[in-house]
Write a structure and sequence with these properties.
Length: about 190
């Protein structure tokens, strides 16, 4: 059973999707890649085809603790246009379950009117689509049930924030150290 569900719509940003999946799996957090199409194979914004784990109809929303949306164009508008997903997003918000999104995808929550004055960030130029969120320019913003991030370049930090939320700060730090993330460089080891 997956703790987190990440959604693949035609035109998703593959770096944002795969980085999150990779790092959560390194942290031993069960995550399912869910296709919102009628096929497990979904084509990204840069014409990369990735096979999802499950179709939308097979996703276990009862067990999942978090919905994650990768950005990308036309991926983000395709996510917003898929009513079965937006219904589940609104249900998660009502239940106080976690909602995360990166790049243009935080605008999905904004256009659904879910932020209610919470802080959020997104890809530059998309801030007008955040609804009633208080826009802030930070790589990752965690506020209430939301984790939002700016784009492909901030996805490692975004994934770390998700890991911290689901499994704790120590696990997030361990994963970042194992992938040699910038803040974990050990000069003494490098000299040997």
């Amino acid at each position: 059973m997956a703790q987190a569900l990440i959604f693949l719509a035609p035109g998703y940003e593959e770096v944002e999707m795969l980085t999150v999946v990779d790092l959560l799996r390194r942290a031993e957090i069960p995550i399912d890649m869910i296709s919102i199409t009628d096929s497990l194979e979904v084509v990204s914004s840069h014409n990369v085809t990735i096979k999802a784990d499950k179709l939308f109809s097979e996703a276990d929303f009862d067990e999942a603790q978090m919905i994650i949306l990768p950005g990308g164009i036309p991926g983000t508008p395709n996510l917003l246009a898929y009513k079965p997903l937006t219904d589940k997003i609104c249900e998660f918000a009502e239940k106080g379950k976690w909602l995360s999104a990166v790049c243009a995808a935080p605008t999905v929550y904004g256009q659904l009117g879910l932020y209610k004055g919470r802080k959020a960030t997104c890809y530059p130029g998309q801030e007008s689509n955040l609804g009633d969120a208080s826009y802030t320019i930070q790589p990752v913003v965690t506020d209430g049930i939301f984790i939002t991030s700016r784009g492909a370049g901030t996805t490692i930090e975004f994934a770390a924030a998700i890991i911290e939320r689901l499994k704790g700060k120590e696990t997030a730090a361990t994963v970042l150290k194992k992938i040699i993330y910038q803040d974990t460089y050990d000069e003494e080891s490098a000299k040997k």
